[in-house]
Structure formats: C-alpha cells, structure tokens
Amino acid sequence: MTTKLRINGLLGSVPKLTGENYLDWKFAVQMVLHCAECWDVVSGKAKKPKKPEDLTAWEEKAENALKRQFYGTHSLGLKGRAFVDTVLSFADQLRAVDVELSDDDVIDVLIMGLAEEYSALAAALGAVTSDLMIKEVVGAIIDEEARIGKPLAGKEAALLAKENRGNRRTITCYGCQKEGHIQRDCPEKKEKASMALDDLAY
Q1: Has UniProt tagged this entry with the keyword Zinc (predicted)?
Q2: Residue 71 and residue 181: Cα distance in Å, rounded?
C-alpha cells in the first residue's frame, strides 16, 4: 500500500470535530500528519532551514500539511459561513505558495465537506451539469444557512418584528449582485437553469 493511499484512508477516519470529541479528533489529525511526515512542520518543531538544499524538502512538507488541512476541512465540524470562510482561507494560503488549485477543486471541497444538514444542497449542487462558479456555491451555502436557521416563535418573533420594523435593509443577491432578491430567487439563475434544461432537451 502506498503512503498516499494510507494517508487518504486515515483522512477518512478523522471524526468531525464537536465540542465533546476534541481529544479524539486531535489524536486522529496528529496521526495523519505523522504518517504524511508533516507533523514537525505543523507543530513548529521543524524550523525553516537556512540552507537552500534543505529548504525545498521543508517547503514541500509545509505545502503538504496545508493541503491536508484544506482537503480535511470537513472534519472540523464547521457549518455555513464559518465553513466557507475556512475553506476559502486555506485555498488562498495554498495559492499564495504557488500550489495549483483550480476553482473546481475549491468547489469540490465546499460541496463534499458540507455538514449533514446541508445534504439536500450538496446533492443539488452535485447534480448541476453546467460549470459552477465559487461565488454561486458560496451564495447557495449562505442562503441555505439562513433557510435552515431556527425560526423564532411566539413573543420573541413579535418583539423582533416590532423592533426591526423601521430597520429594513435592502437585500442583495449573491449571484447577480442586484438588489431586491436573494440568490435562491434570482431571475437570472432561473433563466440559466431554464436554458440548461432546453439544451438538455435537444
């Protein structure tokens, strides 16, 4: 079994981080990083070498550690905007060190790493046959986060409605950037979907 296959198998065994399983999660992540020979870099034990001949190996280990964090974001147990921000942050860090990372790679991590509550969205995004853009996926995740948020009931809802009556803000679509609707209700998105269906029909 190659090291890469063994590492991928270990990544799948890392539990999602919750408030109660931090020690188990930490141990599993450390084992994956040890197996990938990245733990010394991640933990700070291995300092950046001064000799140019040693620098290449060190940079490769640092790059591999960052890739593992990026592709393992799902195990952090983050949801919605926090998950999106973390994935995009890792993607930016990888690109900053000249790692080739396509938009499709980022989209795959965003979709495949969604929490269980977002499974319907993940299935819908996975079924899209046209090319998705990162901003569309991010907008869909944020819209879904708002949709599945817990609604207020009874007096709380009435008080909040009364309080916010004068504080109306303009809604802006994440897809087309126009005001007055959210991405889920975007007429341009619906038009693209309709055109895609027409293309499939022919």
Answers
A1: yes
A2: 33
94: Cα separation from own chain's centroid:
14
Same-domain pairing of 49 and 36: yes
Residues 56, 45 share a domain: yes
DSSP state of 152: P
Q: What is the pTM for the complete model shown? A: 0.51
Write out the two tokens for 175.
């897809």
**Crossing angle of helices 22-35 and 3-13, rounded to 10°:** 170
172 beta partners: 179
**Residue 78: enclosing H or E segment and its boundaries?**
none
pLDDT in tens, 10-31: 666 677 777 777 777 777 777 7
State which residues form the domain around 180. 152-202
Map tokens 């001949």 to a residue: 53
Helix (H) or strand (E) holding 101, with range, is none
